[in-house]
Structure formats: structure tokens, C-alpha cells
């Protein structure tokens, strides 16, 4: 199935793109997605995505239980560094 | 009620007039907050501009949640939040929060709460751009987190 | 800095623009408070208007003192206070307080302080006018005095 | 000497004028002024001026020590009910 990974702000700069289309096996989890990304990105890029303060949203909802979430075709997975508005 | 994200500048005047028309003689107090791009960063370095980024869809939800929380805590008659994104320059308006209430304490608290939450919870990213450097992504300060936290403990 | 008493309405837009020109990129936060005439009195009776009276000379001094106190407590870059007098109708603007600071906490606190002091210390008298009655002179509420008092104890 | 007494808001309504010109002996105090006013005003009007929450200003400054203040020619004495702005 196909999912899309989005990268914002400092992570967009680190990964050098704002979106990656990813082909992944049905029923894949976020852990599987990270493995896919690790295969395509440099080590320093993965380190940026793996930082403790990076939050992940699936279809624009924060995933609080983390890596266990099972993905579905067409899912949008966003990697977000710490936010600040105002 | 209005929550918007836009690249264009906003007109306080237009928002204010529209708000006053909506509330008529029913609310006695309006509090407005506007955040402007400062020409100096926290450490004092000159800033040539600010770049603001958001996540369409998710950012709006984060703002709606903040406004809902404010309305749950205080009797607010109307709330307007406008947040700009894109490239801004020193002196430019970044954000506008307008709160109307029958009680001035509620209007002040509601407006300040929304701002404190925007600083720590709203899905935006800000980069300070400096002449001759790559720029720095801004993070909420310890003070921002303290302010956000104080609303949790405080009965105000 | 500007402190004014006038019968005419004020334009938030004009004051805001002038303030922004004065502060340029040096202040990051502007907080505005506007008080409007409510169509209902505290007890719920319909109000047809408000009459405001002042003591020329003395009222200005009382406002200047309030603004000085605010500037002594917080780092405020600019403060504007405009207070109307004469006959007003429901929905009309009564008072405008604009405060600019590099720190949003200071801008909020400064603006709220000025309002709380205007309610209890500034030399104005307000009469609620009602259809078919002589009207009532308004007095500061217990809440107004509590709010004014809290600034004395509070380190904020 | 001549001084002027000003009345604001509810006191203006009670006294039925906003200002009274008063001729009083040199060196008169606020107590003397009240005696003068008592001679010209009705009892209910004086009661309004004597209310505990009425404050008195001489030349636009609140008189905190009250009645002892000595007046000078041309002084403006203001009788003010409780104030409230905003």
C-alpha cells in the first residue's frame, strides 16, 4: 500500500524534502515505516526524525501511543518538531 | 467566532468593526492582542525576518481546540484568532486575538490564555531569518511553558 | 504616550496605526482593551444610555498617575488611554487602553492594571440612564475593588 | 475673600448647581466653608455633602487631612462622590 510521510520545519530541512511517497506492506506499523525511511535516508536525517522531541501525527492526529499504530493505505504521517505559534 | 490562517496581513480595524457589529450592546469588554515581528531575537541579534510554517488542517484543529477550551473556562461572547504564515518582516503583524465578554476579567483572561496556548500548543513553526546566516527555528521558552502551565493550576 | 479625555468617539484603527509607527520593530506585543456601553445594567434592567462626567484637570492627573504606576511596574514601551465623557448609547465605545511591550505578559498585566485602576481611582462619574426613570450613578463594585487590591499584594 | 465650591455627579444633582461662589473671611478653613454652605443649602443638601464617602479636593488635589486645611482667595473646592471610570 502507499502512504505519505510529511516533514515540517527543521525536519523538512534535514530530510531535504517536505514529502516522501512510500510503498509499504499492508498492515505496516509506524515502526515499519521508520524502517522504510531508514533505508532511504542518511543516518543524520534519521537521527533528526528519531529525536525525542519529534511528534508524529497520523492523518493530522497526534499518535500518543507511538509506534504500535497500524497504518492504512493513503495515510498521511507527519513528523513534527516542537511547535510554537503566536 | 472566526479562526483563520492566512499569508496576507489582517486589518484590526475590519475585525474590530465586525466583532462590534456581532456583539452590539451585549458585551461590555473587548480585549485584543497583536503579536508583531521584533527586530531583535531574544539574545539581541538583529532579525531580518520571520518565516512561519503550518500544517493545513491540523493547525486549524489545534487552534479550534484552544478556543474551545477558553470558551469552556470563561463566558466569552466572541473570539477571533487570525494567524499569519509565510515570510514576515520586522514590525509586521503575526497574530491577532480578539475576545469579547460581558466581564473584563474574562475578556483579559480568555485572550491571555489563547495567546499562551498558541505559543506552546498551536501547530506552527517559526524561523528567525538573519542576514548572512541560515536562520534559527524558534522554540517555546521556559517562560512560555510556565505561563501555559499556570492555567492548569489556576482557578482564575 | 497619550492620555486623552474627549466627547468624540475614538478610532481604534488610528490609535493602533500611530502606536505601531512609534514602536516600529522594537515591541513584540500590543494589548488593547475597549469598554463599551452595555444595554443592560448589572441587575438586568435595560439601559438607554450612559452619562459620563469628569473634573477637568484633576481627572487628567488621576489618569497620568495610573499610567506612571503601570510604567513603574512593567517595561512598557507605549501606553495610550482615551476616555470619553458626555452622553453615550448602548454599544458605544467608552474607553480605550493600548499597551505595547517587548513582553506579552507585561503588555497584558499593564493593560489590565490600568483598567482596574480606571475603574476605582480615575476621577469619573457615570450615570446609567433608563427610559422613564431618573437614572442611577454607578459605583465601583466589590469585584472592582478586589481586582484593584490584588495588584497591591501581587508580585506579578 | 472669594472661593468657589464645585459639585459633581450626584452632589451636583443634590445641590442643584455645579458651582457656588462663596464670600468667606480671610484664613477660613474647610470647616468654615461648610458652615457657609450650611447657611445657603437645605438640610438634605448638606447631608449629601457631609456623607462619609464624599471626598474633597482643593485646587484639584485631594485633601486627606480633611477639614483643617486653610483656604486662600481664589481656591477651588470640589465635593466629589465616589469615582468610577472605565
Q: Overview of this structure, please?
A:
The complex is a heterotetramer, with two copies of chain A (about 90 residues) and two copies of chain B (about 160 residues). Helix content of chain A is about 30%, strand content about 25%. Chain A has helices at about 10-15, 30-40, 45-50, and strands at about 1-5, 20-25, 55-60, 60, 75-80. By secondary structure, chain A is α+β, with helices and mostly antiparallel strands. Chain B is α+β, with helices and mostly antiparallel strands. Chain B has four helices and eight strands, in the order βαββαβββαββα. In chain B, the strands form two sheets. Chain B has a four-stranded mixed sheet with strand order 1-4-6-2, sandwiched between helices. The model of chain B has no long low-confidence stretch (mean pLDDT about 95). The interface between B and C is medium-sized, with 35 and 35 residues. Strand 2 of chain B pairs antiparallel with strand 2 (about 30-35) of chain C, so a sheet runs across the interface.
